[in-house]
Amino acid sequence: ILVRGMGLGRSLLSGVLTMTLLVLPIIIVAAQEAMRAVPKNRRDASYALGATKWQTVSKSVLPSAMPGIMTGVILALSRAIGETAPLIMIGALTYVAFLPENLLDSFTVMPIQIFNWVSRPSEAFHELAASGIILLLIMLFIMNILAVWIRHKYSKNL
């Protein structure tokens, strides 16, 4: 409703804003929890060395919380890959035979496109649907592997 009120209609930009509103709370909660998980001793040590609150947060707390923050971001984006319902509500088309050229063009989402391809009688569309499913799975695996790698990389440096 908010996106439609902005006059964006059924555009790619309205889809981007909708998905941002969907994943932003997840990212915020993940960041808050990651920052709360930083031991109080780390903050106290920074203050004891004469650091200001901003210096403590930017030089001590954020680097320590980065694995949790990045994991939360990547997992939120992984969730966004499969989300279709909010985009259908703002007008994702069921079939688009062209690539959007700018942010105000019409759009579709991969799960809707896959469903459309599966429902067609031609075998070529079924192969496209299988390829689309494999593409979504590969993207999901890559994002989850990246989350684990980031967590492992940053946790070694602590």
Give the helices and strands, then pairings:
Blueprint: H1 2-5, H2 12-36, H3 40-48, H4 53-82, H5 85-89, H6 110-118, H7 123-156
Describe the protein in words.
- The chain is 73% helix and 0% strand.
- The protein is mostly helical and 158 residues long.
- It has one domain: MetI-like (MetI-like fold), CATH 1.10.3720.10.
- Helix 2 (12-36) crosses helix 4 and helix 4 packs antiparallel against helix 7 (123-156).
CATH homolog superfamily: MetI-like
Q: Give the % helix.
A: over 70%
The ordered string of helix (H) and strand (E) elements is: HHHHHHH
Question: End-to-end distance, in Å?
Answer: 45 Å
Radius of gyration based on Cα positions: 21 Å
> Any idea how many domains?
1
Largest sheet: none
Number of E-type strands: 0
- Unreliable residue stretches: none
Query: What's the mean pLDDT score?
Result: 80
In the CATH hierarchy, what is the architecture at level 2? Orthogonal Bundle
* Global morphology: elongated
Given this structure, which CATH class is correct?
Mainly Alpha
Distinct helical segment count: 7
Précis, in short:
By secondary structure, the protein is an all-alpha fold.
Key traits:
mainly alpha; 158 residues; single chain; MetI-like fold; 0% strand
